[in-house]
Amino acid sequence: MIGCIAIFFGLNTSENAKPEPQQALEDAPLVPVVDGGAAAEPANLLTPEPEAPKAQPWNEQVVRNGDNLSLIFKRAGFDTQDVHRVVTESPDGSGLARIYPGQTIAFLGNESGELAAVRHVKSELETISYTLSANGYGSEVITRTPVTRQSNATGIITSSLFLAGQEAGLSHTTIMDMANIFGGVIDFVGDPRKGDTMHLLFEELYLDGNKFDDGEIIAASYANQGKTFTAYRYTDSAGKTGYFNTDGVSMRKAFLLAPVDFTRISSNFNPRRIHPIYKTARPHRGTDYAASTGTPVYAAGDGRVIKAGYNRANGNYVFIQHGEQFVTKYLHLHKRKVKQGARVSQSQVIGTVGSTGAATGPHLHYEFLMNGVHRNPRTIHKKLPKAKSLAASEMPRFRQAISEISEQLAALQQDTDNRLAMTESSEDKG
After folding, report:
1. Is the pTM of this model over 0.85?
2. Which residues, including other chains, have CB under 8 Å from residue 405's CB and lie 6 or more apart?
3. Distance (Å, rounded) from C-alpha 115 to C-alpha 47?
4. Domain 264-383 has CATH 3.30.70.100
């Protein structure tokens, strides 16, 4: 027998609201009648829709120093078999073998605890997603492109290039990029003077409305002691990109004038100087750049490392051969970043400033030899080979490419000149 529950329907006593008999019959809910006419309560007049299963949360793991995939998967609750499947079954699985500290690897499990997806965030611009399907793990590379915006900055040297760049709102990277562009014509350690001016047109990269990174320097000028150096970024018809002055001469010279970041020179080239440790007259056949331990040291030019080692006098040292005529030497390094026989390119980091060997404090001792003879690194550039120029056939294309940019740069320079003139006028009146 089917059990029944009595249901009482309230009656509306209002005559106006009393329905017609036929209408009442049609509108009345159909209730099964059992056991002599008692109405059985329906199990559920309005059956609620089943709740959707709750989405499983992503388990994010940040790659740590010394991590490997097995350790990361284990922290997320998965085993080496899961590692093997993701790496071998997905087309981009080999990319998981190249992980770096700071990157994020996120894991998504399904209701049965099986690994459903892996998300490898390589950077803000690139993510690789691995997803389980009936055919195993597949992969998808998701890339984002930042928006490029052009900006400009003007700086006036009051104490150092670096401080002037910071006051102009430039990042460390952009300041160093500018120094590298002019590194063959300006020694930013010894040349800058109070009142020098710099102007830059450069790119900034934005992601979701926020600055993401620095872009390329489009054009720059630096006025030093009455002489202005100008550089434009240009990609020639062969696809090669470089910086050139207004006449199409490459800004990339054979050697940098200074192989370190902007620091102070503590001791110049001096063939008669008294050695600070041995207290004897020993020629100082180079330049000392005082800087904090760990400051990057750059290769002054392209070449091959002919010696890299340690001795009591030089400490950690690196010698580089540049062609047949030139050799540069870097002494008292804290660490060497290259080995003997290695090929190096200009501005490549070959070591860091230190105080190893016969040194009284952290500094780089830098020597420049031409045909086996020590030369003053700060003046030898005047005798070095001239920089390459764009071919005559390339010049019309170059001039057209820099036409608008040169006008923008000139407008920045003019604005600075006007402001300086106004400042000087106000000072004179005061």
Report:
1. no
2. 201, 218, 219, 232
3. 34
4. no
